[in-house]
Amino acid sequence: MTPFGALLRHELRLLARDTRMILIAIVLPLILFPGLILVLRAVERDETERLDRGEYQYAVRDTAQARDLAELLERALTLPGDRPGARFDRARTATPDSALASGTVHIVAEWSGADTVQTEGPYRPGVTLRYRADSDLSRAAATELEARLLALGRQERDSVFRAAGFPADPGRVLELEATNVATPAREGGARLGLLLMPFVLLLLLTGGSIAAVDTLSGEKERGTLETLLTTGLTRAEIIRAKLLAIVALGLVLVTVNAANLVTYLVIGVLELPAGLALSVAPIDALLVLLLLVPLAVLVAGALLLLSGRVDGYKDFQIAFFPVMLAFVALAAPAALPGMELRSAIALVPVAGLGVAVREVMVGERDWLFLALAWLSSGGAAYLLTVLAERGLSTERLIGGAMLSERDVRGGPALFPYRVARWFAVLWALFFTVSLWFGDALGVRGQVVVNLIVLFSGATWLMIRWYRLDARQALSLRAPPRRAWLAVALGAPAGYVTAIGLAGLVDAYLLPVPQSMLEAFGEAMLIETIPVWQLLLFLAVLPAIAEEVAFRGVLLHGLRARMRPVAATLVAGAVFGLFHVSLFRLVPTAYLGVILATTVVLTGSIYPAMLWHFLNNAMAIVPTRMGWIDVSTEIPWWVYAAAAVALAASFAVLLSARSASPREERASPQGRTT
What we know:
This protein is mainly alpha-helical. Helix content is 68%, strand content 3%. The chain contains 23 helices and 4 strands. The protein has a 4-stranded mixed sheet with strand order 2-1-3-4, sandwiched between helices.
């Protein structure tokens, strides 16, 4: 056996003996999945019986017309309903709202529009049903009572038509029947297809992280990697063996848990809950397993690279969270409504696989786009494994314990190697604030917390922590005068081309529901906020705080280790990620690249600030003034003219660069060149 084969065999044996990993990634799913099925089935059976044969208490608000409403409800409750075993009893209480809040009463009824002028005929004011959506009984009572009231309303309406001599049965004027043509197996496949990708991804991340942290970070802490370095194996072979071991582990995890799913969901060992009836052909099961192979390799490469670049268990645990979020973000588009594999989503790593798995689970096989999805994720997996092999073959990353010169010196020399961690933590804080406190803070509150507290505070802290020169780190230099002309020409052109790019994303990558666009517009352009305040909070403050954070310290740190083109692309991508929404990711990242390029070409952050302000102002003022709305269509020639104007703007910036002073660029050693 070759030394490489012996090392690979040794790594596989170590993983097979890792009881913690085996327990979490293999044993627990094997035990928990059938247990989960039994619990779901029991809960479903008990809940259905409880709701169908429930006893509901309703109260009538004490008003002058309470008696009429009580009589109306009694008539409605004598009609047959969807739950024949349900029984409604009236509860007489002077405080119906308190009784509803405490759960003593499930529903409160009152007249709405009782002050409306009475017209001829059996007109009645409307009925308002108050219930608690957080209570299953209250919600079921409201649904049942609403259905019976509507049935009573139809009866009264039809009686009026008949009394007036209507020539036909009103109930048969238009008969409507909705038929579900999807088989139960396709419905179950669609549901499982949405859950399968996150489930497998969770297994790969949890089980793979345990193996990755132990095979590199753990061995660096224990000092056992030094033994491997004394053998005849090259560092590349050491990394390759560890990578193959983790990939093999991922494939075992996928295969074992896929077999577990097939055993219970397809073969039918246990009675399944409603909606999980499945009929998966053997070729589809094999196809799903084949589609998940690139995912296993991609996750293994990412985890091994992460394990090699941190110094121990603790650092790995801190850095693992952003990596997990990145994979979750890539897998999220598969759950979006209307997402089809026959689109540009097939070219997006992980996301294309998620959509492909979902379509295969319902029996659809678009072989061309299945191959594209496999190749896109497979290509990303190959590139990442090559990057891991090259990046982890250095003396420091294999040896682990040694400190580089920058670690000893710290300060500006260390900042380029720590800036990514800072922004990963900043993203987590930003996401948490937006998720948990967004509604409570409102638009102005979110701007203050996110821009002033988080972005500006983090920028100041990084400058102080690493003793950075603020003028150099934030590009606080006077730009060439012709740069202002370029911004005046480029900002409108960039805004229009960004709209066109968003349209392409909507059409071919991530379709945006119209309701979401309208809700976003309403949330950002609240009528109660004056226009000047909107400009202050959504244009002026972002143009300052976001620029110093993303085109200031972030771009400064990236440029110390990357070429200008790569640094601008990465800075733009990070800027897009901070806007959280998948639908805004591409156009916002596009704007971020434009702004970063402006800073690189001019050597100054001030033109980017003006560009950012003009971009946001153009998104606010025309919509708020009613000049345009979400349905406004822009002719194609406007997009073409905007593209030409944007190119002209960058031509001016390029000429301005030759006229500007030579820019400073921090090297990894902390010198300026």
